[in-house]
Design goal:
elongated; 118 residues; single chain; mainly beta; 11 strands
Length: 118
Amino acid sequence: QVQVVESGGGLVQPGGSLRLSCAASGNIGNVYYTGWYRQAPGKQRGLVAVITNDGNINYADSVKGRFTISRDNAKNTVYLQMNTLKPEDTAVYYCNINGRYGRVYDYWGQGTQVTVSS
């Protein structure tokens, strides 16, 4: 079992910044990739950014140049630095971890709310 906990969400004004954290604990084993997703009211959940075990990174077009995904392997934590935030970035942000500990697993966190508003 792997526990996934997101933190760092909140209310921020347009143009501001936030840093989200995704901390994993438990039987982590080998992590294949960790992704950040978001879901706004009335919309489907979509990928924001993903980082693989060998360091490959991909971003949604809407966040390229503004968001940065990174990781601290020693802390089993992945971060999402969000700059120049826009009202359309408002959503619940979820962390997803895919890896193998004996067998392949796929876990989601409970989500953290990000609201961009003046």
